[in-house]
Amino acid sequence: MTTAVITQKLDARGLNCPMPIVKTAIAIKTMASGELLEVLATDPGAVKDFAAWSKSTGHPIVEQSTDEGVYRFVIEKK
Amino acid sequence: MDEPLNLVLFSGTDDKLQAAAVLTAGAAALGRPVHVFLQYWALDAFRADRIGRDHGLAPEAGPEGRKAVDDLRAAGQASWAETMRTAKELGDVDIEACSLSMDLLHLEPSDLDPLVDGVEGVTAFFLNAEKGQVVFI
Questions:
Q1: Per-position pLDDT tens, chain B of length 137
Q2: Is A78 a catalytic residue?
Q3: What superfamily does domain A6-76 belong to in CATH?
Q4: ipTM exceeding cut-off 0.90 for this assembly
Q5: Which candidate, A18, A19, A28, places its Cα nearest to that of A74?
Q6: Distance from CA of A53 to the nearest CA of B (A)
Q7: Of A77, A5, A75, A73, which is closest to residue A40 (Cα–Cα)?
Q8: Segments making up each domain of chain A, as ranges
Q9: What's the gap in Å between the CA of A54 and the closest CA on chain B?
């Protein structure tokens, strides 16, 4: 279902709040504009947290899905 | 979201310091500057020779709370000190010791963990706080 080429992957499954967001923010800093980061997370707050982080920082979530308690986000570095 | 988050940490128990570390890291991830002001028992917990120790929990935790905290830690949750360190790597996080509390506890800057950036008084803290919220834990 992935339509774009993922540049970097981050497995944040099992990490508690706020580590999925913190590690995402760290990963994004190392990337170039337009590159895509795929994040997997299981933190129950992930959907709202990633939406809020994306809105605040301006890095759009271009794909999002949920599979058996694992949330998957693809974020584009602005 | 450029207004700083200003945290005054008073309590030195692991649960309250963990809550503070989560707020710090979350704000840093959003690009907000964070100023942390360490007073009393929170400052004591940042002593270089004590930071890795068990600092106990708030009284309301009880035995059930103790177990819940231990279980989360055993599942791999980062300690508050590690979370603070990660937040400092990520963003603009300044941790200052309250000068009054330094006197109270008979501490020198060299007694503190390297996470602590310096010593300041409450006036400097408020000046740096600008228009951001001040949260007391």
A1: 589 999 999 999 999 999 999 999 999 999 999 999 999 999 999 999 999 999 999 999 999 999 999 999 999 999 999 999 999 999 999 999 999 999 999 999 999 999 999 999 999 999 999 999 999 99
A2: no
A3: TusA-like domain (3.30.110.40)
A4: no
A5: A28
A6: 6
A7: A73
A8: 6-76
A9: 9
